[in-house]
Amino acid sequence: MKNATHTARVGSLHSSSFWNNPTYRSLIIQAITFLLIAGSAYYLASNLVTNLTARNIPIGLDFLDKRAGFDIGDSIIAYTSQDSYGKAFLVGIINTLNVSLISIVLATVIGVMIGIARLSQNWLVKNLTRGYVEYMRNIPLLLQLFFWYALLTHALPSARQALNPLPGIFLSNRGLFLPTLESDSGFYFLLFGLLVGLTAALIWRFRANKIQKSTGRQLLVFWPFIAMLAAGGLIGWLLSPQGITVDMPALKGFNFRGGIEITTEFFCLMIGLVTYTSAFIAENVRSGILAVDKGQQEAASSLGLPSVKSQRLVILPQALRVIIPPTTSQYMNVIKNSSLGVAIGYPDLVSVGGTTLNQTGQAVECISLIMLVYLCTSLATSLFMNWYNASVALTER
Q1: Strand ranges (DSSP E) for the chain?
Q2: In angstroms, how far is the first alpha carbon of the chain from the final one?
Q3: What is the DSSP letter of 393?
Q4: Residue 68: closest CA among 381, 292, 327, 353
Q5: Mean per-residue pLDDT, 201-211
Q6: 161, 276 in Cβ contact below 8 A?
Q7: What is the DSSP string of 29-57?
Q8: Cβ pair 297, 314 in contact under 8 A
């Protein structure tokens, strides 16, 4: 009797110690969670396939090879209604990335300037920038897009009465039309010259940084950079056998033909994204600068550094550890907020995907593709910013 009781007690202790082991317990909980998630996914997928089959709706991505049959007004690459749905999706992706990247660059420049200006001792500058930040941050982006679109379409003249501030430049409610270089041999010579100039400028910048680190002597970087870039372009233009051919826009019918066109929809979406996001980036910059100890500014001043150089060389490098993480979120928000362009007629990924969905009925596939593109772009942005954050992080000794 005692042996049986002892055996039961030992078994109970073994099972209790097994469950109390954090490694075994976590493995069991993870396995149960995985089975629940996998079971739920299988149930939803099988239910989806059953319902689509019952309604004779095809499943798959075969529709991407079919003729789209609709035009896209704003496209960087060549596209016609005779192209496939797959190419239409590609145009939407490029349009989304185009407006997002330009908006990110402009919002960063403006946000940094406003963030620094918010800390100015000048009462007017300080309060003007504060009003800009509070105004832009507290008005929904969609309303801002409607405002800019209504303003530009009603304030600007029609194509026939377009403003012509410079030869070859026309501004109307249809958009901004600019001259462009044609893709002939002269254009490629110019492009090659610019690449050579850019390479030389980057080598000069690397050498200047190396000299500064080794000797403390600072060499000019900005103006030599611009001069080398311009010299490379000029040499490429002079060496081109056919010269450079410029395609000038001209009014033909109800709109302009030729040159490069910046549509009103693109311009309104870009302005809305830049003004809205720059207000948030400005606050990130302001908080990052305030996070740096005041003694750093005093030390820079004691060394005789001007205010601009002390901000660029002393304060901002230390503030980046506070600025970059929230700014990364703002960059990802720019990419996702670009989907609001569908409200003003900009043919981004959501707009093209919605048109494809309406024509094909492939709702699950179209929505899944849109979600996948936004997921990949957001993850790529996050990875790049994390790498940049690690590369500029100050190393303590």
Answers
A1: 163-166, 169-172, 175-178, 180-181, 246-247, 250-252, 255-257, 260-263
A2: 69
A3: P
A4: 353
A5: 84
A6: no
A7: HHHHHHHHHHHHHHHHHHHHHHHHHHTT-
A8: yes
Q: Which residues pair with 67 in a beta bridge?
A: 84
Residue 79 φ/ψ region, left for φ over 0, alpha for ψ in the -120 to 50 degree band, beta for the rest: beta
Q: Would you state the structure tokens that stand for residue 71, as one six-digit string?
A: 């035009």
Residue with tokens 């960087």: 76
Q: Which of 40-44, 220-224, 328-332 shows the lowest mean pLDDT across its residues?
A: 220-224
Residue 204 CB burial class (10 angstroms; 0-12, 13-18, ≥19): middle
Q: What percentage of the chain exceeds 90 in pLDDT?
A: 31
Superfamily (CATH) of domain 89-157+262-392: MetI-like (1.10.3720.10)
Q: How does residue 15 score in pLDDT terms, banded at 50, 70 and 90?
A: low
Residues composing the chain:
397
What distance in Å separates the CA atoms of residue 193 and residue 227, rounded to the nearest whole number? 13
- Mean pLDDT lowest among 195-199, 272-276, 389-393: 389-393
Beta bridge pairs of residue 252: 255
The whole-angstrom distance between residue 286's C-alpha and the CA centroid of its chain comes to 22
Residue 129 vs residues 123, 152, 281: alpha-carbon distances, Å: 10, 24, 13
Q: How confident is the model at residue 10 (pLDDT cuts 50, 70, 90)?
A: very low
The domain segmentation of the chain, as residue ranges, is 2-50, 89-157+262-392
pLDDT tens digit string along 131-141? 999 999 999 99
Kindly report the CA angle at 353 between 149 and 136, in degrees rounded to 5?
Answer: 35
Task: Copy the structure tokens of residue 145.
Answer: 């897009």
Report the amino acid identity of residue 55: R
Q: In what order do the strands lie in the sheet with 175-178?
A: 163-166, 169-172, 175-178, 260-263
What is the share, in percent, of the chain residues with pLDDT greater than 70?
A: 91
In whole angstroms, what is the distance from residue 183 CA to residue 244 CA?
Answer: 9
CA 20 – CA 159 distance, rounded (Å):
77
Task: Determine the Cα–Cα distance for residues 277 and 132; give it in Å rounded to an integer.
Answer: 12
Number of alpha carbons in the 13 Å side-chain half-sphere of residue 290: 11
